[in-house]
């Protein structure tokens, strides 16, 4: 980060969950360091040199001995940010899809106090996304939005920023990719301010992804589960009776 940063500035942590991202992680860590105070890499059971490359580039590495899944990797991102007493956490992917140079776009609404959770959205501007990916994202985002006054256009982007308030209140329980919407459901229910900003996203042959059908169905079921759970909790709440 700039040498002009002082102790009174908000402490910003970038956390990068990884699994076998040795070809990309060094450059991502170095570029992220230009915008934040600390870079933490969560190595989720990699079998390559991800941890060594991240450390050599200046990151603090938290290593899972076995692959625990994306949700647990992001949970470790939150835990690392809390242990560092971060005021702001930024999460971004380690496979080169997210551009660290766009970190200031995520940071701006958090540092101004406008937002508690900022989503780097792929769909606020005319940006090309593979059709098979876009369909699944649209379905999941619709399930999150339906019936709610608080809506987003990209419920699946993991390029995000979280305020200190969000770090204190949000908890990840899902081990799979459903964690991304789980956090949004919690944020909405807790009245946290959610904002979206436009970002780029680079899809390439070496980026890691799972079968989009399996991914989409799993996340969609998770969204339905949390929506039903929230409705049930509100329906069974006992209203306060004034004296």
Description:
- The protein is α/β, with parallel strands linked by helices and 243 residues long.
- It has one domain (12-234): Alpha-Beta Complex (Spore Coat Polysaccharide Biosynthesis Protein SpsA, Chain A).
- The chain is built from eight helices and seven strands.
- It has helices spanning 22-33, 50-56, 70-83, 103-111, 131-145, 164-169, 179-189, 212-236; strands spanning 12-18, 38-44, 60-64, 88-91, 117-121, 160-163, 194-198.
- Strands 3-2-1-4-6-5-7 form a seven-stranded mixed β-sheet, sandwiched between helices.
- Helix 1 (22-33) links the parallel strand 1 (12-18) and strand 2.
- The longest helix is centred in the C-terminal third of the chain and has 25 residues, at 212-236.
- The chain is globular.
Topology:
Elements: E1 12-18, H1 22-33, E2 38-44, H2 50-56, E3 60-64, H3 70-83, E4 88-91, H4 103-111, E5 117-121, H5 131-145, E6 160-163, H6 164-169, H7 179-189, E7 194-198, H8 212-236
Parallel strand pairs: 1-2, 1-4, 2-3, 5-7
Antiparallel strand pairs: 4-6, 5-6
Provide tags for this entry:
single chain, seven-stranded mixed beta sheet, globular, 41% helix, 243 residues, alpha/beta, Spore Coat Polysaccharide Biosynthesis Protein SpsA, Chain A, 8 helices
């Amino acid at each position: 980060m700039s040498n002009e940063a002082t102790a009174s500035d908000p402490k910003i942590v970038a956390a990068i969950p990884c699994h076998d991202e040795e070809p990309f992680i060094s450059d991502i860590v170095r570029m992220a360091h230009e915008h934040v105070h600390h870079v933490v890499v969560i190595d989720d059971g990699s079998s390559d040199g991800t941890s060594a490359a991240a450390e050599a580039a200046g990151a603090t590495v938290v290593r899972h001995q076995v692959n625990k899944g994306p949700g647990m990797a992001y949970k470790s991102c939150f835990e690392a940010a809390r242990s560092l007493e971060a005021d702001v956490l930024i999460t971004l992917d380690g496979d080169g899809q997210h551009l660290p140079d766009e970190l200031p776009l995520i940071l701006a609404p958090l540092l101004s106090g406008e937002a508690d959770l900022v989503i780097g959205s792929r769909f606020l501007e005319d940006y090309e996304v593979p059709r098979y990916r876009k369909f699944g994202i649209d379905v999941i985002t619709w399930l999150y939005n339906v019936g709610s006054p608080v809506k987003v256009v990209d419920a699946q982007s993991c390029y995000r920023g979280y305020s200190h308030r969000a770090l204190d209140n949000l908890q990840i329980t899902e081990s799979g990719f459903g964690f991304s919407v789980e956090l949004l459901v919690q944020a909405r229910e807790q009245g946290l301010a959610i904002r979206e900003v436009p970002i780029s996203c680079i899809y390439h042959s070496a980026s890691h992804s799972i079968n989009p059908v399996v991914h989409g169905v799993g996340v969609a079921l998770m969204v339905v589960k949390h929506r039903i759970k929230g409705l049930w909790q509100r329906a069974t709440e006992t209203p306060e009776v004034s004296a």
